[in-house]
Amino acid sequence: MKLYGSPTSPYVRKARVLIKEKNIPCEFVIEDPWPEGSPIADKNPIGKIPVLEYAPGSYLFESIFVAHYLDHLDGKPLQPKDAAGYWQSQWWQALGNGIIDAVIARVLETRRPAEKQWADKLAREESRVQRATQTAENAFNGGRYLVGKSFTMADLVMGVALQYIDFRYPHDWRARAPKLARWHAGITGRRSFEETLPPGFVKPA
User: Fold this and answer.
1) What's this model's pTM, rounded to 2 decimal places?
2) Does residue 196 sit within a domain?
């Protein structure tokens, strides 16, 4: 198998962390989807990353779908087995994916020429991040994991999402979310997170 994408993309990183967690034999191939003529378009007609080549010439795309496939390869998905826990995990994943979307939207706006940047757009995305992190703080019970007593996809997605804030929109979200900050410090200390940090990432003091 081969995973195609950028080492700075949080969508790709979700798959990379999962591959590390499950020790899946999978080659990571760095490819940029943005340039004209990018080979990514030949693998994913939508032109987005990650793309997973699960068999020669056969590809999966969209980060949630790719993660779902990888998570179920060994028949032991990182999901709670009880119905209540399963849906709680899905809730956390939706929140984490929403944070990633908001931070990326903010990043793209900041990369426009200064005179064309839309202040209301930046404020909107920053508000989304703040509301989401506060919602997570309020919902979290303060344990070692977000759901149940073991590492699940909820921890993976939220862990990547909050670390992407640190990477692309660094600010002191931890002051407003101390329970979440303590949990995050433990989760991101896992080997799977340490070995997939984006180039140039600076850990918060």
Assistant:
1) 0.96
2) no
Tell me the backbone φ, ψ of residue 51, rounded to 5 degrees.
-125, 130
Q: Say yes or no: 19 and 96 in one domain.
A: no
* Antiparallel, parallel or unpaired: β 2-5 and 27-30: parallel
Find, among 107, 93, 100, the residue nearest to 161 by Cα.
Answer: 100
Per-residue pLDDT of the chain (205 residues; tens, 9 = 90+): 999 999 999 999 999 999 999 999 999 999 999 999 899 999 999 999 999 999 999 999 999 999 999 999 999 999 999 999 999 999 999 999 999 999 999 999 999 999 999 999 999 999 999 999 999 999 999 999 999 999 999 999 999 999 999 999 999 999 999 999 999 999 999 999 999 999 999 988 7
Range of the domain at 61: 2-72
CATH code: domain of residue 50:
3.40.30.10
Q: Please name the residues in contact with 47: beta carbons below 8 A apart, sequence gap of 6 or more.
A: 33, 38, 40, 41
